[in-house]
């Protein structure tokens, strides 16, 4: 496994061609092994920001640096060896097995058509890590939501990245699988950036939070200090009560207009 | 798929690749041997074997009469070989196109290939005649396919349509225009020669001789080498555009390359065989039902299944209304459709 990278984002802006920017003025830095939760209301630009980190959206201005190297001046294959992503994109009904899905993670490393032993070992380790080795021959489409998510994370791990980007990794998972996903992510020795709708899980998973509000950063800092009722009211338009619970945070919400 | 899954669990891709290739080549060899025996002139098996061995310099001459040797070697053999090459090309291109566009209904004739080839063939058959000898129709068909594909690419570039869906829609739009023009050629032509157009359009190998073999063979080898070398990229593209990008694939460029190479290979195949539907659409699905989704296996398997299917279809085409040939496109349509329905029934 590659070493976790230092991620530095400076004054990043992106928007579709010919339109006003969807995200702008985003700056933050993560130390190697840091875990960042990107939160914000629907349409705040979370996914657009993430796409800049996994090289789908080319920033209009600003830079993304991995250990000091500009992400967008790397060759695509080299970039894919340093940044992996777990996306919400649903694969179509081509009958890939779990092993084939995870093996695809070796694409940026592949020198020949057939994998060498070293590559096969990486795939096997990624599957063991995500506890899906017993599913290797199953068709991906027949898996449960939790198993699918673990397979996609295993594929990302097979890339041996230093930065892992996840778009709503707990979506469509039941309570137990969410908790398990969070624990798995916390156990990885990687720099992690994830969008999370659920602030409870954001606080569980991350040590830093970036709050986006209409494409602009509303706050960035340690989770505990950042996710405060004031900020939640401004960014999400809800009243929030924040309590400490078993070392994490728990949030209760109400609509401001319902306030008695 | 439980059986295939268990098989795949322990066995490496390279080993399965070899197994697939071995089985496929054996079946195709058997089908081609059967094809050599089939025909109006009844020639004993031993004599056919002797004729083939003689051609490869493995046996002395004199085992057969020159007339019978010509029937086997100059008429039946190139026909079987060409059917195998065209089937392999269509099957493989179909598999590549489906993965590259992430569309299980994609077909080798996407990007206007079918319409362009028809236009070129109509022009040759109805208005040009044999100006360049017997190669006139194939040449025009290929140039038509090439022209239509280039038009699709130019239009998609002009409209900024980079996604798979937009590219396919552009192909459909251009195909409609080109097909209308091809029909206009029929309208303004001598109606007696219009029957030849129908015959060409339905596809067949009746006019094959050894001189028609090298160009499609070369297209198959070059196209096959390209697709198999890029099989990992095709897998990534089949998993989604953004996923492919995160795996280091330059999505739009890679997709375009696959579709253009596919269109060229298809253009060559169509030019020698006419329009043969269903093989390119169906064989990749059959390959995936047997082997799963990995294009390192699906591409060669689709080629082999396609070759086998067309050799058998051509045999059927020669038999059903013997001594006349039925257009092989009719056979692939009917048989292919029924086989496909049967395969769907097996699907869990």
Automatic annotation (TrEMBL), chain A:
SMART domains: AAA
Originating organism: Methylopila turkensis
GO molecular-function term, one example from the UniProt record: ATP hydrolysis activity
Protein name per Swiss-Prot or TrEMBL: ABC transporter ATP-binding protein
Keyword Nucleotide-binding among record annotations: yes
Keywords from the named record: ATP-binding, Nucleotide-binding
SUPFAM superfamilies linked to this entry: P-loop containing nucleoside triphosphate hydrolases
Keyword Repeat listed: no
Coiled coil residues, start to end: none
Location of the ABC transporter domain: 7-239
UniProtKB/TrEMBL annotation, chain B:
Spans through the membrane: 80-97, 109-129, 135-155, 167-189, 209-229, 260-282, 297-316, 328-345
Annotated GO CC locations: plasma membrane
Single GO biological process annotation from the record: siderophore-iron import into cell
Keyword Transmembrane: yes
Keywords: Cell membrane, Membrane, Transmembrane, Transmembrane helix, Transport
Membrane-related topology note: Multi-pass membrane protein
Pfam family, one: FecCD
Single GO molecular function: transmembrane transporter activity
Protein's cellular compartments: Cell membrane
PANTHER family: FERRIC ENTEROBACTIN TRANSPORT SYSTEM PERMEASE PROTEIN, PERMEASE OF ABC TRANSPORTER-RELATED
UniProt record similarity statement: Belongs to the binding-protein-dependent transport system permease family. FecCD subfamily.
Protein name from the UniProt record: ABC transporter permease
């Amino acid at each position: 496994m590659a070493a976790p990278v230092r991620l530095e984002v400076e004054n990043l802006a992106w928007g579709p061609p010919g339109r006003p920017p969807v995200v702008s003025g985003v700056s933050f830095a993560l130390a190697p092994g840091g875990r960042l939760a990107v939160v914000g209301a629907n349409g705040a630009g979370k996914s657009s920001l993430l796409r800049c980190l996994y090289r789908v959206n080319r920033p209009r201005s600003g830079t993304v640096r991995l250990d000091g190297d500009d992400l967008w001046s790397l060759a695509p294959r080299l970039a894919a060896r340093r940044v992996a992503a777990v996306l919400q994109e649903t694969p179509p009904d081509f009958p890939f097995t779990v092993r084939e899905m995870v093996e695809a993670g070796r694409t940026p490393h592949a020198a020949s058509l057939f994998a060498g032993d070293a590559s096969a070992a990486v795939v096997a380790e990624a599957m063991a890590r995500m506890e899906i080795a017993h599913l290797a021959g199953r068709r991906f489409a027949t898996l449960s939501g939790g198993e699918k998510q673990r397979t996609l994370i295993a594929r990302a791990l097979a890339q041996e990245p230093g930065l892992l980007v996840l778009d709503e990794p707990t979506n469509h998972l039941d309570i137990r699988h969410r908790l398990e996903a969070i624990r798995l992510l916390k156990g990885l020795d990687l720099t992690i950036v994830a969008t999370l709708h659920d602030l409870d899980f954001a606080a569980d998973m991350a040590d830093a939070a970036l709050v986006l509000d209409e494409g602009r950063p509303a706050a960035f800092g340690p989770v505990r200090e950042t996710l405060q009722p004031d900020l939640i009211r401004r960014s999400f338009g809800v009243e929030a009560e924040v309590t400490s619970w078993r070392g994490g945070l728990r949030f209760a919400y109400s609509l401001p207009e319902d306030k008695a | 798929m439980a059986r295939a899954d268990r098989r795949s669990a322990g066995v490496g891709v390279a080993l399965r690749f070899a197994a697939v290739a071995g089985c496929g080549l054996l079946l195709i060899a058997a089908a081609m041997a059967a094809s050599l025996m089939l025909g109006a002139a009844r020639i004993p098996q031993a004599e056919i074997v002797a004729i083939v061995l003689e051609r490869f310099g493995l046996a002395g001459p004199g085992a057969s009469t020159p007339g019978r040797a010509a029937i086997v070697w100059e008429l039946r053999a190139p026909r079987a070989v060409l059917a195998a090459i065209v089937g392999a090309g269509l099957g493989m291109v179909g598999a590549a196109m489906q993965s590259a566009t992430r569309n299980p209904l994609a077909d080798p004739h996407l990007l206007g290939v079918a319409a362009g080839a028809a236009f070129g063939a109509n022009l040759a058959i109805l208005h040009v005649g044999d100006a360049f000898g017997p190669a006139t129709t194939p040449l025009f068909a290929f140039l038509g396919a090439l022209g239509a594909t280039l038009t699709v690419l130019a239009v998609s570039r002009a409209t900024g349509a980079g996604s798979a869906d937009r590219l396919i829609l552009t192909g459909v739009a251009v195909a409609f225009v080109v097909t209308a023009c091809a029909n206009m050629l029929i309208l303004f032509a001598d109606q007696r020669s219009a029957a030849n157009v129908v015959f060409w359009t339905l596809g067949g190998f009746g006019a094959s001789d050894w001189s028609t073999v090298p160009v499609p063979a070369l297209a198959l080898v070059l196209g096959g080498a390209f697709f198999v070398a890029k099989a990992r990229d095709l897998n990534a593209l089949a998993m989604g555009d953004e996923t492919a990008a995160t795996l280091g694939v330059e999505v739009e460029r890679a997709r375009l390359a696959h579709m253009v190479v596919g269109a060229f290979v298809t253009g060559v195949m169509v030019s020698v065989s006419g329009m043969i539907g269903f093989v390119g659409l169906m064989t990749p699905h059959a390959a995936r039902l047997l082997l799963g989704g990995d294009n390192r296996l699906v591409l060669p398997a689709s080629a082999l299944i396609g070759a086998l299917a067309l050799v058998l279809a051509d045999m059927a085409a020669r038999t059903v209304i013997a001594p006349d040939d039925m257009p092989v496109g009719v056979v692939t349509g009917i048989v292919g459709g029924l086989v496909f329905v049967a395969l769907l029934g097996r699907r869990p």
